[in-house]
């Protein structure tokens, strides 16, 4: 699909240059980035952790960076002004007032704000990641099959464990994170039905601090490791850094990251013990939504990213994963074939 779009854009560019060899860069950029002479300005609102979390927000940011490079869009990036509906509403409103269209909200915590601001700006398309509660003609929900990717890293955890005991650290006890837990447990038990899975959540609504508390993540992982777990999967946003720190201090144990390839971004002292990461391709979701907007798809609805469309997967950067990849791939094919239906609740 991208090749077709790139080719079409190239034809437009050649036509523009043929008509006016001395045309300024701004003219060709407008032609390439929109419909007709429309210039596309995209707004993206990160959750409170912002870019630099080496996880969820960074994955979204990668999609925006790719859109800048390949689609030549302009972009405005903001982080939630406060961890409240009012703060998130103000952030989205600022992006819409600034002429950005579409506006992309990173995370389900923006649901209330999207519902408010989408009514104020009916001519702006809003996209929200991980929530489908807002039904409006100018709101599109970008959802992911996190349970499928978590199933695959659960397979890796059970294969790598020498003690038959693994752990799961969830940031906040909400249905979204329970999808990660459910898939992970199912994947581990597909390899070893007797595997023991220790589960800990760092906070529960209305307390969402579990997504940004590395100290809590470290303490939870330390308790699991002390109890005998030797592989710990963290689906806790910025709190995952604490999980990695605890695992790095325990020789012979493994950590599994989430959202982005956290082996690639980890500190050297931690990197060797990050076995793999469950990839949630938020970057693909962000990029493809901007691409669809440019092509004229400006309607609301729901778009789902699963294994079939490379919406989720796992990282292979650490060579230590290689002995387990054949089993993980066999599991992936069973999911794609429909012979395995991964649960979404524990």
TrEMBL record:
Organism of origin: Actinoplanes digitatis
UniProt protein name: Basic membrane protein A
Protein's UniProt keywords contain Protein biosynthesis: no
Ranges of residues in domain ABC transporter substrate-binding protein PnrA-like: 46-343
Superkingdom assignment: Bacteria
Leader peptide range in chain numbering: 1-21
GO cellular component terms, semicolon-separated: plasma membrane
Keyword terms: Cell membrane, Lipoprotein, Membrane, Signal
Family matches, as Pfam families: Bmp (PF02608)
Keyword Membrane: yes
Localization annotation: Cell membrane
